[in-house]
Amino acid sequence: MGKPSPGFEVALLDDDLRELPPGHEGEIAVRVAPRRPLGLFQEYWCNPTENALRFRGDWYLTGDRARRDAHGYYWFVARGDDVIKSASYRIGPFEVESALIEHPAVLEAAVVGLPDPVRGQIVKAFVVLRKDCVATEQLQHELQEHCKRVTAPYKYRARSSFAPNCPRRSAARYAGSSCEGGGRA
After folding, report:
1. Which CATH superfamily is domain 83-184 in?
2. Cβ atoms within 10 A of the Cβ of 49, count?
3. Closest CA to 2 of 94, 78, 75, 108
4. pLDDT of 110-150, one tens digit each?
5. Over the Cα atoms of the chain, what is R_g?
6. What is the pLDDT of residues 4-55, one digit of tens each?
7. How far apart are CA 129 and CA 142, in angstroms?
8. Which superfamily, per CATH, for 10-77?
9. How far apart are the first and last CA of the chain?
10. How many Cβ atoms from other residues are within 10 Å of residue 175's Cβ?
11. Chain centroid to CA 68: how far?
12. CA dist., res. 151 & res. 53, Å (int)
């Protein structure tokens, strides 16, 4: 994402509105007090509930989650409402999707959270393979290992479906665990 625009004080906050140090994931917040940055909207029109949720203390909470590196650059993780909470870990679907599409066999990927009685949620990936690739158990394992190396081991203890086409995250969320024409790999 880069660095904040001039005139905007941006921070990553935890759930108690405490600023987090570099390397930690938090919610992106823009300071609005004592002085609101020029160009930042005033409020959610006719929506006091959203205003109360987003404008807290001296901050406007964007609903986006990110990490900041030691050089001050922000790295997008996910929308706060898209975060998959699995065994107390917060997993950004975007990060897992990005890792999957880096693999040479993968054309497209969509990741959602599925309910799990033990972990709360588990990662479910819908994967569209390139035309010259075949869905196999070996490829399934290779994709898991690839994601573990690129992200973190806990981010891809997933179930995957290989499919001819893949729904976008919002569609997949409502489709449950099925993807058109997909079978479990």
Report:
1. ANL, C-terminal domain (3.30.300.30)
2. 8
3. 75
4. 888 888 899 888 888 899 999 999 999 999 999 999 998 98
5. 19
6. 999 999 999 999 999 999 999 999 999 999 999 999 999 999 999 999 999 9
7. 13
8. Luciferase; Domain 3 (2.30.38.10)
9. 34
10. 14
11. 15
12. 30
Q: Which residues pair with 32 in a beta bridge?
A: none
- In terms of Cα–Cα distance, which of 151, 157, 105 is closest to 127? 105
Same fold? 10-77, 83-184:
no
Strand partners, 162: 127, 183
Cβ contact 92:78 at 8 Å? yes
Residues in the chain: 185
What pTM does this model have? 0.60
Q: Please calculate the CA angle 100-176-67 and round it to the nearest 5 degrees.
A: 45
Alpha-carbon dihedral 175, 178, 180, 184, rounded to 10 degrees: 160
Domain boundaries, the chain: 10-77, 83-184
